[in-house]
Amino acid sequence: MTYYISTYPTRMARRMMVRHEAYQPASHVLPLNIREEQDGYVLSALVPGLKADDLNIQILEDVVTIEGTYTGDENEYMLQELPHGEFSRSLRLPVELDADKAEAKIEDGLLTLRVPKAESSRPKTIKVNIK
């Protein structure tokens, strides 16, 4: 009796799917870095080749949503790892945000979004008077 062992069983299935004309790759997931500061949050994301007009950023209460589209060419590739197509990423942050004071910029393919916390979410300092 002969046994055939495949070390990568999904490799053949993946190759067959790529060859199939109806195969559509999954949409790109936008990786983020989030840093909390005393008065807000700083979100950073790599968005190579995108301009400010290519992005849609929405803030509603404590949810930040970043959407966009990578435009690509119609060439056929043997291996395609660069991002292409639409992406969307929504995050729920632990406090309510002040959308009116949010700032976003793109510099060298890096999106930096600064979102301040809402005034109601910031800690209050109360002085105690001693008599």
List the helices and strands and how they pair.
Layout: H1 9-19, E1 32-36, E2 40-46, E3 55-60, E4 63-70, E5 85-92, E6 103-107, E7 110-116
Antiparallel strand pairs: 1-2, 2-7, 3-4, 4-5, 6-7
Give a quick summary of the entry.
With 131 residues, the protein is mainly beta. The protein has one helix and seven strands. The strands form two sheets. Strands 1-2-7-6 form a four-stranded antiparallel beta sheet, with no helix packed on it.
Describe the protein's architecture and organization:
The protein starts with 8 loop residues before the first helix and ends in a 15-residue tail after the last strand. A hairpin with a 2-residue loop joins strand 6 (103-107) and strand 7. The model is unreliable at 20-24 (pLDDT under 50). The protein has one helix at 9-19; strands at 32-36, 40-46, 55-60, 63-70, 85-92, 103-107, 110-116. The strands form 2 sheets. A 4-stranded antiparallel beta sheet has the order 1-2-7-6, with no helix packed on it. The protein has one domain (25-121): Immunoglobulin-like (Sandwich), CATH 2.60.40.790. The protein is mostly beta strands and 131 residues long. The radius of gyration is 22 Å and the shape is elongated.
